[in-house]
Write a structure and sequence with these properties.
CATH class of the largest domain: Alpha Beta
Number of helices: 16
Distance between the termini: 61 Å
Largest sheet: 6 strands, mixed
Structural class: alpha+beta
Helix content: 25-40%
CATH superfamily of the largest domain: Potassium Channel Kv1.1, Chain A
Strand content: 25-35%
Length: about 500
Amino acid sequence: MSSQENELRMFKVTWRIENFSYATQKDGEALLSPTFVIDTSIKTEWHLELYPRGKMANGFISCFLKRAAYDNGPANVLISCKFSILDEYESEHFIFQINNVLADRENFFGVSQFASKDDILEHKRNAFLPHDTLTICFSMWNAGLSQSTQCEIRSLFGIEKRSFSWIIDKFGERRSNEGWSTPIPTTSNQPFFLRMTFAVSDESENEGKISIGVQNYVNWSIFVTCKVSVVDEDGNTGFLANDEHLFSGKETWILPAFTTRGKLLARRSLLLPNGDLTLRCEIALSDGIKINCIESSTYGSHSSETGHLNVSGICTIAEDHGSLKDDLYCLYVEKKLCDLNLKVGDAIFPVHKAILSARSSVFSSTFNVRGEAMSSEITIPEMDPEIISKMLVYIYSDTLEDLDWESALKLYSAADKYEILSLKRQISNYLVSRLTQENVSDILVLAESYRDAGLKAAAQEFIFVHDREIIPSPQWKRFVNSKHKLAAETMQYIYVKRMKLD
C-alpha cells in the first residue's frame, strides 16, 4: 500500500450532545467525551473536551483534544486534526484545522473561540441545534493509522419538567412588602430541593414591583428554565416572566418580571376572581449528563471527507465527490482561467479577481475602483511571499496549512490588512490555544493593537488563571514598563474578577 494511501486514513468522531441548551457546565468547566483509542501501530488514548460556556474566551463555545495521561503510546505523536460543527443537513461549519503538531500528554489542542454561543443558542439555533442537539465532528489523520475508523458518541443532559398551578389567595387584599413561597413539586426521586418565591415591593415604588424567584437548596450545579403566567377567570394565560439560570450551588435567582401589583389590581375582575391570583408555573431542570457513551464504531472504511483535507499541500479530491471548496482550490493550484497576477517580491501568484473579491472587502474595493483600467498585475509591497501564499490557500480552500507561531502572527496581520475576518478569527483561535506564560503579554499587545476584543479577553483570562507565575516574571515586568495603560487595565480585570470570586 502506498504512503499516500496511508496519509488518507482517518479516525473520525461524530459527537452528538442532546439537550445541549441545558448544559450544567460553568464558565471554564468542560464536558468530557468518553475516551477513545486511536488504532495505530501503538495505541494511544484520547478524549474531547467541550466547554459550553467557554474556556478562556467569554461568549464562545470552546473545544479541545486531550491525550490520556497514561497510555501505551510514545511520549509524542505527530498528528493533524480538524474540528467542526455540523448543521441540520450534516454540513460542516466553524472549521478549525491543525496540521503536523506533536501531541504529548501534557498539552491540549483545539480552539477557544470555536463558535459564538449566541449563534448556536439563539441566532442560528434552528441550523445548529435541531431538536436541541449539538453535533461536533472531529477528524484525525496521520501515516500511522492502520485503518480508517468512524466513531459515534452520544451524550445526553437529563431533563425533568414540572408544571403546576400556584394560587395566592386574597392577593388583592394583601399588603405590599409581603412575600409568599411554595415548594416546587416533583414525582421523581431526584433530590432537587427548589422553592418558588413571590414578593411585592412597596406601592410607592413602581406600583408594587413583583419579584418572582427560585431558591436552590443543593450544593451542585443545576440548570433551570422557568416560565410563569397569570391565569384569568376563563382559564387563559398571560405571560408574566420567562428566563433561564445556571445554579452553581445554594442561591436564590430572581427572574425579570413584566408587570406590577397595580396593573393586576386594575384588571381585578378578570385576573383576580374572588381576590385570588392564580399562577401557572412551568419548570425544566437538569443536573447534568445522564448518558455519555460510544454508541458504535465502524472500521476499515475511508471517510468521504478525505478529499476536503489539506493533508499534503496538493489538491486531493475523492473521485466524483468534489465539493465547491475542492473545485475552487483546484482552480488555484492548477492556475486555470486566472485573470490577475499578484506580485510579491520576486514571486508571482496567478489568481481570480472574483474569488478574491468575494473573500476580501479590501480586494473587492480595489478591483471596483480600478475597474476596466486595472492592469493584469498588482504589486503587493512589504509582504512575505510565504505569508501571501498561505493567505491565498485559505482564500481558496478555507484551510490553514503548515502554521507555526511566527507565521501565524504574520498571517494575522495580513488577514487584518485585507479584512479577511474568518481567517483572522481562526488565527486568533490558534494563538489562544498556544498561549504560554512567556508569550501572553505579546498577544495582549497584539490584541490591543488590532482591537481584537475576543483575543484580548482570552489573554487576560489566561493571565488571571496563571497570575502567580506571570506577574513576578521578567516578561511581565518588561511589559509593564512599556505598556503602562494596558498593564493597569489587565490588573484591574484580575482584581475585579478575584473580588467577585471571593
